[in-house]
Amino acid sequence: MQRIYLDHAATSPVHPEVIEVMSIQMAEVFGNPSSIHSFGRAARHVVDTARTTIASSIGAHFNEIIFTSGGTEADNLAIVGTARAMSDKGRHIITTSIEHHAVLHTCAQLEKEGFEVTYLPVNEQGCVQVDDVKAALREDTILVSVMYGNNEVGTIQPIQEIGEMLNNHQASFHTDAVQAYGLQAIDVKKEHIDLLTTSGHKINGPKGIGFLYAREGIALSPALFGGEQERKRRAGTENVPAIAGLAKAVEIAEASREEKRQQYIGFKQQLIDLLSAQEVDFCLNGSLEQSLPHVVNLSFLGTDVEAMLVNLDLAGIAASSGSACTAGAIEPSHVLVAMFGKESERLRNSIRFSFGLGNSQEQIEQAGKAIAQITARLTKA
């Protein structure tokens, strides 16, 4: 039985070229980048080269890239770092009800510390309205955090419009771009983004590495204390092999972005067409047009999400019920609750499929046929 991986939004396989680059670094470049001798300078050169590559990918400057252990740390640094640095100017934060838990749980912690957080609603396509952001904005608002593209349903948010609206306000603008980076063309200056979060393992890079873009001059307090790495913004010896691997993954993603976008959009349409041809009773959660190319979330009427996932796994197909960080949780997806309400049937029968490296049209066809057979069996039971 051929196993088919359709859960790239949870994590992606490491690209062979990334593995090769990291292997060389681990074998040959072991110096501490803070050391001034030749071994340290060799490691520093790797880190600096990677920082240049990554900064270029989003239209940022070299010194605006802070390497982190991944998206969660980058989100925490952006949100907590801003809150602490700007607490004398206000204690109000705006975010949305569909953010990743790395944002939501961080905001919840800040609420316990006396900050006030406004959680904005979304429409049935999973999109926040710019007017709602504007209406929630106050003089004491210090941070607005809106994800670039949703990890569960793929909806792309109006980032540039929100950024432009915040131009003359003291609030910093943060976007969690973990799911969008590598597939969406992002320009932090053009889109007026102050803080942007990414993670390596979503773009065929290694786990345990990511970065936070922080605009030059932005108020940001460090979350870790120790050495003076990352210009005193993130203490700890740099993970040189992972940083080199991340840079290689970024380089590959940038070179193949448009090709991958078209391929994944094609996979999405192919799957939907196959299911329609097989007369599967399903609904699309989110927008087909205004969404990330690699994510599609479908509600299969008359099925149960747990039974569906088990049967898919038995058929060799890996998919997800939403965010990988809530796998095994009893409570329904907070994203679908925000979109459709607590009583919606979609909360109990929705599956996320996400495409990436290694997928083919043949795999999508095989998966579509298997899904049709499974739904027929489950709805007949």
From TrEMBL:
Gene3D superfamilies referenced in this protein's UniProt entry, alphabetically: 1.10.260.50, Aspartate Aminotransferase, domain 1, Type I PLP-dependent aspartate aminotransferase-like (Major domain)
Superkingdom as given in the UniProt entry: Bacteria
PROSITE patterns: AA_TRANSFER_CLASS_5 (PS00595)
Catalytic activity: (sulfur carrier)-H + L-cysteine = (sulfur carrier)-SH + L-alanine
InterPro entries: Aminotrans_V_dom (IPR000192), Aminotrans_V_PyrdxlP_BS (IPR020578), Cysteine_dSase (IPR016454), PyrdxlP-dep_Trfase (IPR015424), PyrdxlP-dep_Trfase_major (IPR015421), PyrdxlP-dep_Trfase_small (IPR015422)
One Pfam family from the record: Aminotran_5
Top-tier EC class: transferase
E.C. code: 2.8.1.7
Alphabetized SUPFAM superfamilies for the sequence: PLP-dependent transferases (SSF53383)
Keyword field: Iron, Iron-sulfur, Metal-binding, Pyridoxal phosphate, Transferase
Residues of the Aminotransferase class V domain: 4-366
Cofactor or coenzyme needed: pyridoxal 5'-phosphate
Family to which this protein belongs: Belongs to the class-V pyridoxal-phosphate-dependent aminotransferase family. NifS/IscS subfamily.
The protein's name: cysteine desulfurase
Organism: Bacillus kandeliae
